[in-house]
Specification:
- Strands 4, 14, 15, 16, 17, 18, 19, 20 and 21 form a nine-stranded mixed β-sheet that branches.
- The protein has two domains: 158 residues, Beta Barrel (Lyase, Ornithine Decarboxylase, Chain A, domain 1); 258 residues, Alpha-Beta Barrel (TIM Barrel).
- A hairpin with an 8-residue loop joins strand 17 and strand 18.
- 29% of the residues lie in helices and 25% in strands.
- It has twelve helices and 21 strands.
- It is an alpha/beta fold.
């Protein structure tokens, strides 16, 4: 087998080409996987998820400041993934009552769970407090008041962090940049909202403030924003400690560490990220005269993105003339924006290959599109595929492990694909394929 044309920074490390050009993932041919499980199909190399989780933990363990690594479950969560994350010794970050329910169903230790969200319901907060989650990241004065009422009524004490808005623009898409001022998350450090929130927390006996938190965005490939946010967060920690006579020693630095989707993407290694974040916090702590003994980070995409591949079957293929006189080959597959909304939502780029055979036909400019009634139903906007690609061929799209199944929908009445995990070369269904009966089950007529 060979890995020719499979960039190891993009594809799972177990991805190889057979003698006939067929893609194999963790020792399994995609043709056989398609026959057994049908397409579209989400495939995960479970052993690589575990390896990347261990790599993440080791990178931060090697640094001087203690770090709790929380897997950001919004990237993709199932009971199987929760168990892998727990076996790696990582913590878990959830952003909804549903994600918390999945974690609890997988017997994840609630003390190792952090609860995020900008508009948590009273039910979600009460469930989290009763479950004994490690800490809750509060996002507004309203939430602090609601959480104080809940802890008082339940006679419980809850550890919390305050999410700070630091006025930092991450180098990423506008919709996934989350630390600038004009957006829904956090409490502003510049207009006094952060200090007001800290004052409010200090006044409630049922709430224990353990630190400040920031998240600058998602799929960030440049470290400048992380460095600026870490520095600002330490500065604000020192200010709050001085203002309220506290000794906060924890800063939450969020996640958003980018991965490679196409050859031009050059992500920073997690070892370098861990080193730079630690150096920044240590330097800034000295400058501002504060002791920071713990940081938290929340990688999601970095852990499950590269181990995931989506497999499609080709339907119609047609050349389309372009204004400049060229031609683009439109390759329609049996999925689309219902199983990967990121291209339509963020103009995301992906790498796609003909996966079931080798071809010596010339490569042509192509666009992989879905079967939905939207002109924006695009899976891969620009790629080069063999000109002889045809109905029944298989296309594999790399690095789809994060934010594809978790953001999927039933648009056009399309049942969601199955999720298959491969451990020790053995495939198993993690989430079964939806059926038309599933679509109708909630319809009471």
């Amino acid at each position: 087998m060979t890995s020719v044309d499979l960039n190891p920074a993009i594809w799972p490390k177990s991805a190889l080409r057979g003698a006939n050009g067929e893609l194999h993932l963790a020792g399994n041919s995609v043709t056989e996987l398609a026959k057994k499980f049908e397409t579209p199909l989400y495939l995960y190399d479970a052993d690589e998820i575990l390896a990347r989780a261990n790599q993440m933990r080791s990178a931060f363990l090697a640094q001087p400041i203690q770090c709790d690594v929380h897997y950001a479950s919004k990237a993709f969560l199932s009971k199987a993934v929760a168990k892998i994350i727990q076996s790696a010794g990582l913590y878990l970050d959830v952003a909804s009552g549903g994600e918390l329910a999945i974690a609890m169903a997988a017997n994840f230790d609630p003390a190792r769970i952090a609860f995020h969200g900008n508009n948590k319901s009273a039910f979600e907060l009460e469930t989290a407090v009763n479950a004994g989650v490690g800490h809750i990241i509060v996002d507004s004065l309203d939430e602090i008041e609601l959480l104080a009422e809940i802890t008082s009524r339940l006679d419980k004490k809850q550890r919390i962090m305050i999410r700070a808005t630091l006025g930092i623009n991450a180098e990423t898409h506008e919709y996934i940049s989350t630390a600038h001022e004009d957006q829904k998350f956090g409490l502003s450090a510049s207009n006094g909202a952060l200090l007001a929130a800290a004052k409010e927390v200090v006044g409630h006996s049922g709430l224990e403030l353990i630190g400040l938190h920031s998240h600058i965005g998602s799929q960030v490939l440049v470290l400048d924003g992380f460095v600026a946010a870490a520095a600002k967060l330490v500065e604000q920690t020192a200010l709050i400690n001085k203002t309220f006579n506290l000794s906060l020693n924890t800063v939450g630095l969020g996640g958003g560490f980018g991965i490679a989707y196409v050859d031009s993407d050059k992500p920073v290694s997690i070892e370098e990220i861990a080193k730079v974040l630690n150096q920044t916090v240590i330097e800034q702590a000295k400058i501002h005269g504060v002791v920071i003994s713990k940081i938290t980070v929340e990688p999601g995409r970095y852990i499950v993105g590269p181990p995931g591949v989506t497999l499609y079957t080709v339907g119609t293929v047609k050349p389309v003339s372009l204004i400049d006189g060229g031609t683009r080959l439109y390759v329609s597959v049996d999925g689309g924006m219902s199983d990967n909304i990121r291209t339509a939502l963020y103009d995301a780029n992906y790498t796609a290959i003909l996966a079931n055979r080798i071809s010596t036909a010339p490569l042509v400019l192509s666009r992989v599109v879905g079967k939905h009634c939207e002109s924006g139903d695009i899976v891969v906007r620009d790629c080069y595929l063999p000109s002889d690609i045809s109905n029944g061929d298989l296309i594999a799209v790399a690095a789809t492990g994060a934010y594809c199944r978790s953001m999927s929908s039933q648009y056009n009445g399309t049942p969601r694909p199955a999720v298959v995990g491969i451990t020790n070369q053995q495939p198993a269904i993690w989430l079964r394929r939806e059926t038309y009966e599933d679509l109708l089950a909630l319809d009471l007529g």
